[in-house]
Amino acid sequence: MKNKVQDRSVEVPNRDPHSEPEKNIVSDMLSRGLKITPLWLLLSLAIWGIDGVASSAIGLGLIFANFLAAAAFLTWAGRISVAALMFAALGGFVLRLALLTIAVIGFSKITFFAPVPLAITIIVSHLGLLVWETRYVSLSLAYPGLGPSHMTQKKSQGDQVNQLLAAGNGDSSGGLHFPAIESLLEWPGFLFEGNTFFELNKVGLIYIWAMVAPLVIFILAIRKSALVPRGVQTVAESSVDFVRENIVMQTMGPDGMRFMPFLLSLFFFIFFANITEVIPFIQLPANARMAAPAFLAILVWVVFNAVGIKSQGFFSYFKNTVIPPGVPGALLPLVAVIEFVSTFLVRPFSLA
After folding, report:
1. What's the predicted TM-score (pTM) here?
2. What element of type H or E holds 213?
């Protein structure tokens, strides 16, 4: 067994444990950006004059600073944990976008500020450098970060990855191993373990949160209600106004107000079940599991058809659904089949 393990071992290239691929990629990106900076400034001077070249220079400086800040933030978060890295990737983008906006507003007070050259420079240089850099980034598991410069090195790295993957198949003592798909789909229970009906796992806990959080918000809003809303009351009333004006009134009109409690409950339940996706250290939307979305889709489908049948009668509702008005007779059989399949068979899946 010992000889077998030794035969299956793969020599992994020496890597710096503190390597920082984010900084390496941004450094490479900035070196390419600096090469084209003189050409871009000359082009700006020819098109927009002195004010244009000055604004373009400001735009390039903002983009370079943005890339450096992104690399520093991601590198710092990567040293902590994967969850911190995910939070830095999402929250860092929002933060840098806000700082970039503030910087542009500040520069707009300068007399030589020209908004058109600045905007074009920021958009073109940002997207151009990102797209250009994709040609030089390696997706290799053996060498994350910048790719090799020669094809022989690429082939060598690819062979090493294949060896690592091959070594992981079989004996668990060596090679590269990936978690099974069950680790993403089957969350272990932490309460009432062993009881398949009452067992509670992470997904179930998020659903409990999605039910309790709206109740707490509205109970607090009712207890502290005032003529001029403040705090929790503002959140509750704004949410109700949003559902009423932007969902009910725009899609169903005044007749849809009777469904306001049902739609408001769906809105809050789905919102709080999904918002956990962007909460650090949770980062899982409960609706990523199919059970609850499928149940809600079937529930809405039943309510949708039941209301239609109650309002129009069974045969009239069926006729108006599968036979749209104004369809030529030659196309009627085809359109009727399509409408029947899309409304009565496909809609539950599309809703889910």
Report:
1. 0.47
2. helix 202-223
